[in-house]
Task: inverse folding
DNA sequence: ATGCCTTTCCCAGAAAGA
């Protein structure tokens, strides 16, 4: 079973990129973030034509998450808002979508950015991680097959950013945020899939548009991750980051992250072959 | 470097992203 995640920075702006990526890579599930569109305006047709079930949780202009799956999903949870207890506007961000597919619980996750230390958004980010951890601990155990893919807006390790000393002052890699993520992952003893199989070497999933970091061959940040429970981590067979997608015309500032797990896909009438080569 | 670019709102320029 091959699952992928991509912060597309607008599904309408990235529609053709996503269609082409699906045709090339044939994932069983693709989680999307920052779709930036209300559910009624989500462009479903081309994805459904490829055989994907489209499950969406969006809002106008900001945020928005979705899953594209090769076959139906169940137990759709489209918000943790009810559990957060935050006053508006923080209780209505479309940031989490949970679905069960082929016996695996999959969450498409878009964590808050935080803006900068000291900002209200920074405090919100901290509380959001606490609340999300509480939600996950309440609903799952480390023995369940759970995968959380998305933009966590925090890079876990020094090798996940280009310049750790400079970045320690930048939102996404401050010591506080790294501590929040480290605490969050304890909720289900979650494993960072990429680093389980690739413990060495710099790796990035996002490059800044403003500095033209990718075009100049500079580093970015590995702020997108696939976190999995120990039960699912034992079934991991490969991980990948599709760097090529970031170099295309009009790219998202994030690229696609992929994992494969040894969970045979039984539930599908989808007849296209599953591509098994990784990137 | 308080910079760089991209997207949304919708038609001007602010807000947000990270």
Result:
């Amino acid at each position: 079973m091959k699952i992928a995640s991509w912060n597309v920075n607008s599904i309408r702006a990235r529609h053709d990129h996503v269609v082409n990526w699906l045709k090339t890579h044939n994932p069983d599930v693709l989680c999307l973030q920052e779709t930036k569109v209300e559910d009624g305006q989500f462009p479903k047709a081309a994805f459904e034509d490829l055989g994907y079930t489209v499950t969406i949780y969006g809002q106008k202009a900001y945020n928005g998450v979705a899953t594209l799956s090769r076959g139906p999903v169940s137990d759709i949870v489209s918000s943790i808002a009810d559990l957060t207890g935050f006053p508006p506007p923080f209780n209505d961000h479309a940031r989490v979508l949970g679905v069960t597919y082929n016996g695996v619980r999959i969450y498409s996750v878009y964590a808050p950015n935080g803006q900068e230390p000291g900002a209200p958004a920074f405090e919100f980010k901290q509380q959001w991680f606490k609340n999300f951890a509480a939600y996950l601990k309440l609903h799952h155990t480390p023995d369940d097959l759970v995968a959380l893919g998305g933009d966590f807006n925090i890079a876990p390790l020094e090798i996940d950013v280009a310049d750790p000393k400079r970045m320690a002052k930048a939102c996404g890699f401050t010591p506080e945020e790294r501590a929040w993520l480290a605490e969050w992952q304890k909720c289900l003893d979650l494993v960072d899939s990429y680093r389980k199989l690739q413990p060495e070497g710099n790796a990035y999933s996002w490059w800044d548009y403003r500095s033209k970091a990718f075009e100049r061959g500079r580093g970015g940040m590995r702020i997108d991750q696939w976190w999995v429970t120990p039960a699912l981590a034992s079934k991991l067979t490969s991980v990948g980051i599709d760097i090529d997608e970031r170099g295309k015309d009009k790219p998202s500032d994030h690229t696609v992250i992929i994992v494969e797990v040894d969970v045979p896909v039984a539930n599908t009438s989808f007849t296209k072959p599953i591509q098994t080569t990784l990137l």
About this structure: Residues 271-279 of chain A have pLDDT under 50 and may be disordered. The first helix of chain A runs from residue 15 to 25.
